[in-house]
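Researcher: If convenient, please comment on what follows.
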Amino acid sequence: MTETNSASGLVAAALVLAIGGPVLAQDRVLAVTSWGGAYMASQREVYFKPFTAKTGIVVREAEYDGELPKIKAMVESGRVSWDIVDTTMSLAVRGCDQGLWEKLDYSRIGDRAGFVPGGALDCAVGSVIWSTVVAFDERRFPASGPQPQSIADFFDVVRFPGARALGKRPRVNLEMALMADGVPPGDVYRTLSVPEGVERAFRKLSTIKPFIKAWWDSGNRPTKLLADGEVVMTTVLNGRIAYAIGHEKRPFKIMWHGQVWDMDLWAIPKGARRLDLAYEFLRFASDPTVMAKQSQHVAYGPAHVEAIALVDPRVLPLLPNAPENFAHGLQTDARFWAARQDELAIQFANWLAR
């Protein structure tokens, strides 16, 4: 803030006091932290502005990159400056295990049973569902001929030839490999829990390894690879590919079979100073009629079951948890990856180097 603006603010505050009007109190400001970009812009329109209009509580926005150590430092020092944090499922679970989030009182939020499975944790309440899917360029597989339909087709380079791209990480790749190899979604993590299951996943990945032209590590790269014709199929975040289809009019198609879905949730840092206001926000943000509106801005599905029916039917087909899309997907297991991430990352790096 410039000195001029600061001085103007002081004058304005003095004038308000002089006429006996209210001055915005610090305890009527709620600090909400999220991921920035188009996602946070959607939250601003759907949650922040309407919440302020309804309650008079002003939302002060902050951005972060999922730095749990930063939150830990706040909690341990007793100087918690964030009141609400948008967190991934993995961060929600880890933060709860470490005592960094408040245990939630759902009587102050809403019906806990109304959320999708895993959407109402002890320390975090679900907001949106997003997923990693396979997408392909319809120009390479026109509707007049066979088009990829299942995750097994992504691994079938005979019927569906051409270069592919995958994320440069074991997570999602191992799950998709097992589903492509015939493991039912409900058995994937049980299979990965034993060495033989991990070996099976890597063997399946090895069948397409020569056809992987790119290993992406940023969310915008897969759509560019498709647009530039470098690959015919790729794994990609559903929100990114939906934007390319809807806004950029790209001739891409999403294959929902074999999607691996995840969730973002709201959490309250332990020791947050404005706990009552935080609960007011969570109650508002967990209202199905409010949650359903976010899908108009980003292609993520609301984490409340009742909200699905309220989503615009024109948008619904692009959401991970549209009923027809959800049927053949797998929910990522945050606890599995919290325990095995480092180990499997090493195995993946070694496999990639061979």
Observations:
- The first helix runs from residue 3 to 18.
- The longest strand covers residues 252-267.
- Residues 1-24 have pLDDT under 50 and may be disordered.
- The chain has two domains: 24-129+263-318, 130-262+334-353.
